[in-house]
Amino acid sequence: MTDFHKGLLAVNPADSDLLAALNKSGRDSFLQQEIPTRKTEAWKYTSLNALTSHEEGYGRLATNFNANELATLSNIPALDAHRLVFVNGQYSSQLSSSELSSSESSANVVRFSQANSEQQKIIADNIGSAIEQDKHLFAALNNAITNDGVLVHIGKNEQLKQNIQITHISTAQKKAFTVPARILIVLETGANATVVEHFTSTGDQQNCFINAITEAKVGANARLNHYRLQLVEENSIQIGGVYVDLDRDANYDSFQLGLGAKIVRNDINVNHNVGGSHCELKGVYLPQNKQLIDFHSNMEHKVANCTTNEVFRGIMADKSKAVFNGRIHIHPDAQKTLAELSNKNLLLSNEATINTKPELEIYADDVRCAHGATIAQLDEEARFYLQSRGISAAEADVMLSFGFINELLENLELEAVRDLIRPILAKRFGRDEELMQHIG
Amino acid sequence: MLTIKDLQASVEDKEILKGLNLDIKPGEIHAIMGPNGAGKSTLGNVLAGREDYEVSGGSAELQGTDLLELDPEERARLGVFLAFQYPVEIPGVSNLEFLKASVDSVRAAQGKEPLDSVSFLKLAREKCKAVDLDQSFLKRGVNEGFSGGEKKRNEIMQMMLLEPKLCILDETDSGLDIDALQVVAKGVNSLRDPNRSFIVVTHYQRLLDYIVPDYVHVLANGKIVKTGGKELALELEEKGYSWLEDGADNGAQ
Question: pLDDT tens-digit profile of B129-177?
Fold first, then answer.
């Protein structure tokens, strides 16, 4: 075992009969995979140095925390949600609403460790099934070390009105630590739910490595609205992803936001497995300073008559760096596929970097596929238009940068999420109060 | 109000304005007509300060202030307003926020406090109504998905909000049906004021039935080649421009 593997496996899973098989197969898979280097295609532009060079390694941390101080942070104002909050990986009953779990109810939101026998069966039947762990090192790691997680199970035809919010807060700590976070979402036929994943942190002295994996099994005719908001601070490391299986005529509608940190890497994998399913994936990344953010998306069109619409936009400031890799894989049987991918980027400084790569692999002949990636500066015409109305060039730039991202926010269904994000964006672009008056 | 002397300007090394003179007094409306490529739009863009236009000689002063030395936003704050021929669409930036930013900037330059949001919204709604735009246009992105006519009405609405000293209408009538033309003209006429001047650039006499000019100039080959009263527009409608262009060439020899 290399130091790399040993270091990351230092987090021992707790004894859990439910997860023992997953832990073991994850560990086996993880140990067989090589350490990514610059020569590993999927990691070409993203160095893991900051993670692997940490002298102490990343163990699990038991912390005491003052829930009162974290109440504001854990809250998404105006979001009507059933809320589960974890602090440094530990569940906080004080910050959470109670778990949603009863044998009569057809909507369950419950920790694995609290699952009843029926729920345990759902977990055992589904967990890991949407993930090809041998191809995804950090999903394998999560399989190996996860000791708890959240099950969201929505029964047949249940239209859950209330949103589900799952928040992970990391606090400033002297010692480095790992949080394996796991969510399993199972929507039965015709079910409908909205899940908001929310990662945030206190202060800027972060020592946390969040290994967060979300798995979703979206049943026939079911619809999952999924928000994943990464609002962690500068020094955090977050590596993980989202793995989705779509059944017949299923809908996966997702919005991803990443602010960047020491390393943020997300793999988003969607499998069109049966037919007639649709994936709507929107994302925004906004690294600044020396932050890094990396989105690798992979749409697997395995069968005919499925559609994907993917739009990612990024703004890179200062010396930050973003990586976007959008793969669409159309298998030989996936006739009549409609797939579109757009990735637009703005560089705000000449020391910022974006590596973007749309990747189409098409093995069927009757499909419609479009992809485009652009890297640009702000539009001169638009800037002149604003200036000709008396707005200063500096404020025009702030407004245009904000507008570039805001265009994607305008269509978000959850107003509360828009309201949470807009001031954060405004702060990113308008570092001067004077320039922020007309955005947000 | 505006004094232009011997103005010369080029775009991408192509000389467009070749010594243009124009003197506009407060309260006057000057129409500028002329064949395609004569430099009509260039004049508006040079006065508004678009970067692609290189001024190589001459001067343009607004009430004694040299405009050509100023940034576009400074000109706007002094009271120069260009209604664009092709207004830009800016998705993601709300029309209302844009209008407020604009009005706040111009007010600040005049030493006035910004309007509070409620008063501004009220004002913006009034002006929307005046140009027959639904209030929902305030919430949309700047010009985003607006029809040609709606974009032009949005321009006139901005003009009404900013109350500039010098309004330059760059082919505002192009692409407008007769109803929209009347709405636009009504907006412009409502702004007529002894202390406000207009330059109306147009291809067609039609607009001048609704916005009646004090002077009509013919711009050809980068110069004003003929000036007359509003009746000149009718004459041009009948005879075209060629008789004047020939004259311009002769004059240059």
Answer: 999 999 999 999 999 999 988 999 999 999 999 999 999 999 988 888 8
Give the total number of structural domains in chain B.
Answer: 1
A245: amino acid identity, one letter = D
* pLDDT tens track for A386-433: 999 999 999 999 899 899 999 999 889 999 999 998 888 887 776 666
Chain B residues lying within 8 Å of A407, measured CB to CB: 91-92, 141
Q: Which residue of A has its CA nearest to B96?
A: A438
Cα–Cα distance for residue pair B62/B168, rounded to 1 Å:
13
Q: What is d(CA A129, CA A361) in angstroms, rounded to the nearest whole number?
A: 24
Tell me the sheet residues that pair with A342.
Answer: A311, A372
Mutation choice for A interface testing from B88, B94, B121 by most A CBs within 10 A: B88
d(CA A353, CA A292): 9
Q: Where are the domains of chain A?
A: 3-377, 387-440
Decide if B141 is inside a domain.
no
What are the Cα distances from residue A219, in Å, to A101, A153, A190? 20, 11, 7
Select the residue of B50, B73, B141 nearest A392 (Cβ to Cβ).
B73
Give the residue from chain B lying closest to A408, CA to CA. Answer: B92
ipTM of the complex: 0.94
Of residues B12, B20, B13, the one with CA closest to residue B47:
B20
Give me the domain span that covers residue B69: 2-88+164-248
Q: Tell me if A271 sits within 8 A of A300, measured CB to CB.
A: yes
Which residue, A293, A243, A292, is CA-closest to A271?
A243
Tell me how far apart the alpha carbons of residues B135 and A169 are, in angstroms, rounded to a whole number: 42
Q: Which one, of A240, A215, A206, A259, lies nearest residue A420 by Cα?
A: A259
Tell me if B203 is assigned to some domain: yes
Strand partners, A240: A266
Sign of CA dihedral B216, B218, B222, B224: negative
| B113 within domain boundaries | no
Q: Is B162 left (phi over 0), alpha (psi -120 to 50) or beta?
A: alpha
With beta carbons less than 8 A apart as the criterion, state whether A227 and A415 touch.
Answer: no
pLDDT, position A432:
64
Query: Looking at residue B241, which CATH number applies to its domain?
Result: 3.40.50.300
Token representation of residue A170: 């990391």
Kind plus residue range of the DSSP H or E element containing B18? strand B14-24
The pTM of the full predicted model, rounded to 2 decimals, is 0.85
Residues 6+ apart with CB under 8 A from A347: A315, A316, A353, A354, A375, A376, A377
Element (H, E) at B59: strand B53-62
Q: Give me the DSSP letters along A159-217.
A: B--SEEEEEEEE---SS-EEEEEEEEEEE-TT-EEEEEEEEEESSS---EEEEEEEEEE
In total, chain B counts a number of residues equal to 253
Give a yes or no: residue B130 inside a domain: no
- At B239, which amino acid appears? K
* A52 alpha carbon, distance to own chain's centre: 22
- Looking at the complex, report in whole angstroms how far the Cα of residue B223 sits from the nearest Cα belonging to chain A: 25
